[in-house]
Design brief:
By secondary structure, this protein is mainly β. The protein is built from two helices and nine strands. The chain has helices spanning 12-30, 99-104; strands at residues 2-4, 38-50, 63-73, 78-92, 106-122, 135-148, 155-171, 174-184, 212-223. It has an eight-stranded antiparallel barrel. β6 and β7 form a beta hairpin. It is elongated.
């Protein structure tokens, strides 16, 4: 069996610059806005790869991950969110029923780091009255940058996050949430099987299939309230 694995990330500096710039800008913005528009949080969950080695989402390849995020509540329905996450993805040909994949018999395991900026839309207005138990499903989409290490030289790509979630205010100022999102790419080398012209068939990626991965998380967040709003 051929194992594609490495611990080297030559693109770390680019990811760090992207992340630092993202958060400096948002925290600078936070210093001049009203308190209850500011929210910080964290989540725990996992990532799941989809690509040449796993053409469909296979729960046995689920790998742990975690994230931190900063949310700026623009209105009662719209929010902007910046986040960072770290986790891992993996895949194995040997668990497939496809004879071609069994003959190829490749596997990979890699670390993933990402920084994202999303816009969120909440379907129910977030009310600021004191005793209201706010909750709402929401959708989000945005842009991000991820780095990974399936090969010795490492790699990085622009990603396009898209997903859904549910947020519930358990006791002001604390909220919990459940979120599922997919990070789409325009590349095919997260698993080390890039679209390489002239490469042997067993070691080349499918040119019609770009790699992606999902991130599912349980989240908790804290909203900064300056005062308790009256009824």
């Amino acid at each position: 069996m051929l194992i594609i694995n490495s611990n080297t990330l030559n693109s770390k500096q680019h990811a760090r610059l992207f992340t630092v710039g993202l958060f400096i800008g948002l925290f600078t913005l936070s210093s001049v806005v009203n308190a209850q528009q500011i929210e910080v949080g964290a989540g725990l969950g996992g990532m799941l790869y989809k690509g040449d080695i796993s053409p469909s989402l296979n729960p046995r390849f689920y790998r742990p991950a975690g994230n931190l995020f900063f949310r700026y509540n623009l209105t009662r329905s719209f929010s902007a969110r910046a986040g960072i996450a770290m986790g891992g993805i993996k895949g194995e040909d040997q668990v497939s029923n496809d004879p071609f994949q069994q003959a190829r018999n490749l596997s990979f395991r890699t670390r993933v780091s990402e920084a994202t900026l999303d816009m969120e839309y909440f379907f129910r207005d977030w009310k600021m009255t004191r005793k209201t138990k706010n909750w709402s499903p929401y959708v989000f989409g945005g842009l991000g940058y991820m780095s990974y290490s399936p090969k010795k030289e490492g790699g990085s790509h622009i990603i396009y996050p898209l997903g859904v979630g549910l947020k519930y205010e358990i006791k002001r100022p604390w909220s919990i949430g459940l979120e599922f999102g997919t990070r789409f790419t325009r590349n095919d080398d997260l698993d080390g099987l890039a679209k390489t012209p002239g490469a042997p068939k067993l070691s080349a990626g499918n040119p019609a299939l770009s790699d992606s991965y999902t991130y599912t998380a349980l989240t908790i967040s804290y909203t900064f309230y300056k005062i308790t709003c009256p009824e």
